[in-house]
Amino acid sequence: MGRQANTFKFQEAGVLIVDENTGFMDLTAQILLGFGFRKLERRGLKEAETRAGFDPDLIIVDPFPDLDTGLRLIEDHRRKQTAGSPPAVVIVLTGHTPRPLIEKARRVGADYIVAKPFSANTLLDRILWSTSSVFANVACGELGDDDRADTPLRASIQSATAALLQ
Questions:
Q1: Ramachandran area for residue 9 (φ above 0: left; ψ -120 to 50: alpha; else beta)
Q2: Distance CA 123, CA 93 (A)
Q3: d(CA 159, CA 72)
Q4: What are phi and psi of 92, to 5 degrees?
Q5: 27: DSSP letter
């Protein structure tokens, strides 16, 4: 399993990419493979909503063109989480970022919203920030932004960022 008490190993983490645009889904998958992720599943919105059998550690979802289905997917996943284990990180990756969407996505359980088009650096930064936040909250309770810098993933964040920038 990719989730443990205070670590998030990319090569072991299961990732679910949900998007109606296969080109963006392929691009996102290639970027994630470059980061070291190896367990990827790609699905359209309807397929992701109805198909079971995969418990991802990271979900990257574009809720459009069917906003209700996309947000329900996040909400349903949050409702089904196992108590006591770190929740999956949910990143909304979309070309539509009006304030009402951002607020709705956060309310149903999205950890971060990233606007398309996006850079690989931005996506990596949001994944690392979200995973470190999740594990800091699980291990230590709610932490402020200043405390988050001292999480066990700090070295991983620095090394991953340095590797990406080389």
A1: beta
A2: 9
A3: 35
A4: -90, 125
A5: H
Work out the angle between the directed axes of helices 120-140 and 22-35 (0-180°, nearest 10): 70
Cα–Cα distance for residue pair 103/124, rounded to 1 Å: 22
- Please state the pTM of the whole predicted model: 0.76
Taking the CA atoms of residue 58, residue 31, residue 68 and residue 138 in that order, the dihedral angle to the nearest 10 degrees is: 20
Residues 83-130: tens digit of each pLDDT: 777 778 999 999 988 999 999 999 999 999 999 999 999 999 999 888
User: How many angstroms separate the CA atoms of 48 and 102, rounded?
Assistant: 21
User: Which segments of 9-113 does DSSP mark as H helices, in order?
Assistant: 22-35, 45-50, 67-79, 99-108
Q: Which domains are assigned to the chain?
A: 3-161 (3.40.50.2300)
**Rounded distance between C-alpha atoms, residue 138 and residue 152, angstroms:** 12
